[in-house]
Sequence to fold (438 residues):
Amino acid sequence: MSGFTVAIVGRPNVGKSTLFNRLLEQRKAIVDDVSGVTRDRQYGIADWNGKSFNVIDTGGFVPRSEEIFEREIRKQVQTAMEESNLLLFICDVATGITDLDQEMAHVLRRSSKPVYLVINKVDNSNRMLEATEFYSLGFDKVFFISSMSGSGTGELLDEVAAIIPEDEQALPGDDEVPKFAIIGQPNVGKSSLLNALIGAERNIVSDIPGTTRDTIHTHYKLFQKEFILIDTAGIRRKAKVHEDLEFYSVIRAIKAMDEADVCLLLLDATQGITGQDLNIFSMAGRKGKGLVVLVNKWDLIDDKGTNTARDYEKELRSRLAPFSNVPIIFTSVTEKQRIFRAIEEGLRVYENRKRRIATSKLNEVMLKAIEAFHPPVVRGIAIKIKYVTQLPTHTPAFAFFCNLPDDVKQPYKNYLENKLRENFDFEGVPVRLFFRKK
Ligand code: GDP
Ligand code: GDP
Fold:
């Protein structure tokens, strides 16, 4: 995964979230004309022509009220220009060019990042004619689309995918130092954790700038363990201008995630897990990152009985499902409880993510499991899985060779994944299963 980020900008109601959903091919977000409607997803991962990239709907971060909007949108566009690799500037053919479009175009024309002007709601040929007025905004790349029907979005995606660099697929060598990212909502204790670790030992080797100027990699040698913590400028010293911008913290978290091997996701024990946390969690999973969940501020939970942690953990795991095979640790950063344990778990997950299973062992175990419980028969034909092998990828992936690869259904895939996890330690690691024609 390249870590390439595309930001969708534009004034309200031009169709940003409709386009966002189309790019992600999912309809979860609420699209609505009512102002002030909060949408449940503002960022995600899109795949096109073999390239994966982050997509951010900046509109999802702005309250849809006209007064605060103008000020917010200026900040939002500014941040999007700084933080993303490509901007999609959406305009609406139905309204024509508005003052706000002009104003945004003025800012965006000076962007050092590429900007594609996307004219939306071009639902028919009449609108196509009207849309030509947008050339006057002065952008080189102009696209005419209908997010509603999807027309034109394929061409747009082709152009987006074309400028994304190829993923580097080199496998990490054994001498690589594990990279951790601390992620989580504001105020869960990320910077406190970082400071506690910095304070824990003077033996910090160095601060190395990350691959983007926004991240800092700090090399630690704590109690004979070596690791690199990736933190973002936002964690270390809260950048004043952007403090109030949720969008900013999300985009930074995604960047840190892209550079990490394992993400330490912090939750506030008193708040429980939020929808935003689950988004970040599943995004990390889709990016193939290792995960450890830290339930922080555990000291604030009163009257802890013998079962408190166990019950809390059970409930949390059910929310994390289907990827619930992750370490969950109850920490208190302020009381220095289990902080080092968290790092140890991170290192363990890092090792799990590198785990390679010998083909002979894999087949011995998995063919037995398949023998014990066969895939259901389809159209009167038995599905026969003959052979399993682990693929040479960053994150564990397995290919199952069989006669009818397209007919293996999700429940059976879950069964196979569970069997893999029962027999080999992949805790905290997303595991991918592929089915191929024998
Ligand atoms: P946002 O505020 O920019 O995120 O805009 P939304 O995605 O919420 O869309 C605003 C309105 O425009 C909604 O009623 C959408 O259904 C509508 N809309 C979005 N795309 C299209 C399109 O391609 N054609 C038409 N006719 N309507 C669209
Ligand atoms: P960040 O925004 O995620 O970086 O969160 P901070 O590290 O700035 O912490 C937010 C607040 O929570 C601060 O007042 C911390 O002192 C407090 N805090 C952090 N960790 C703990 C903890 O384990 N227990 C308690 N009681 N407070 C904590």
Notes: The mean pLDDT is 84.
